[in-house]
Amino acid sequence: MTDRYARLKIFPFADFSKLKGKKVAIVGVGGLGATCAEILTRCGIGRIALFDFDKLEEANLNRLIFKTDQVGMYKVEALKDYLLAANPEIEIATYPFDVTDGKGYDSFNEEAGKSDLVLGCVDSFQVRLYLNSVSIKLNVPLIDGGASLDGVNGSVHVIIPGKTPCYRCNKPALKEETKVDLRRGDDGQCHFTSLPTTMGIIASLQCQEVLKHLLGFGNVAPYILYYGLEGKLERYDWKRDPKCPACGGVK
Amino acid sequence: MAKEDDLFYFLQCATIASPRDREWALRSKEEIYALQRFTEYLKFLEGGEWFKLKATSDNATRWTGKVFEGLHEWDMELVLKDAYPHTPPACRIPDLMDFTDRKVDDGVLGLRICDMHMEQNYWWDEFCSIALYLKREVSYWMQSVIKEMRRKGWLD
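ok -> C-alpha cells follow
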C-alpha cells in the first residue's frame, strides 16, 4: 500500500505533515465551502469545523460534492460523510446553525477562537460583516471567497488582522475598481447563477492561500480577482486603512 | 454614507453592544430613542409614518409591527441576532415574500429580505440603528417590490 500523502511529502516548498496539527473553521458549505473542505481534507488537515444552517436542495446539485440522495439532509452532515470517506484520519465537527445567533453564535466563537484560520464561504453580506468582526476581535485570519452575480468572476480576500486590509478597508478601492453603477435596478432578484467551474476555481484559490498561510510558503496575496470571461487573475496588494472603523485600532 | 443621508446622523447609536453584552440596556435605549426621533421626523417632515414597530421580547431583540403603503398594510417582523450590531437586523414582511425573488434564507426567520442593496451601497456599520435600517433598507426594499408588483398587476 502506498501512503495517501506520498505526493504531498515530495512537495518542495513546505512540509505538509505540519498540516495535521492545524484546525480550520469553514462557514458556509455550499459550492465554495464544500470544495474547500474536500481540498483541505485530502491534504490532511487536522480538524475542520463546518457551519451552515441550510439543508441540501436539488438546486444545489449543479455544484460539486453533494449527491442526489442527500437532498433534504443538513449540508454539514452530508458533507461530513463525504469527507470522512475521502480521508478518515481527520476530525470533523458539524454545526447546522446560523453563526450570527444562538447556538451557532456560541459554537462559532468557541471554534474560531481555537482555529488557526476561518474560511468564509458565504453568500450573505450580513454574515461577511460578522466574520470580519470576529476575525479582528479574536485575531484569527479570515480567508473569504465569493463569486460575482453573473457566475463567471470571483474574488478571494485574505484578512490577517493587523497585516492585511480587512473587509471594510477595501470599500473605496472596490468602488473605484468596479467603475459601474452598483445600485441595483428594480427588476433584481437575490438568487443568482452559480457555475461549478467558477466555484472550483475560487475554492482552489482560497485553499492555496490557506496552505501558504498555514505552512508558511510563498507570498500570501491579500486580494485576488478572477475574471472568468477573460481568463485573467489579478492580485491586489492594498494597504490597510489606518482609519478603518473595524481594524484601524489593531496593531 | 451617501450624501443625501448625512442629515440622518441623529438615527445613529453611540454604544456598540450586542444583546448578550452588559451595555446592551444602554444600546437598546438608544435604539428606541432613534426610532422615536425617526417617527417624529416622518410625522412632521414627511407627512406620515410608513411603519409601526414595537419590541416584543424583554431584551428588545424581537420586534413586530406593520408597514403601510397607501391603503395596504402588511405585518413586519424584525430580529436582532446575537451578533447585532456587527451584523444588520434581519427583517421579514411575510405577506410580500411570495411576490418577490428579493429574499434570502435566514437561520432565524426562515426567509428574510435580501441585503443586496446594502452590500452594493455598503453602508452598514456598528453605529447604525434599527431606524436607519428601516430608512435605508426596508423602505428601499418595499418600494422596489411594490413597484414590481404593480407593474405585474398583482397590486392596485
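Chain A has a mean pLDDT of 88.
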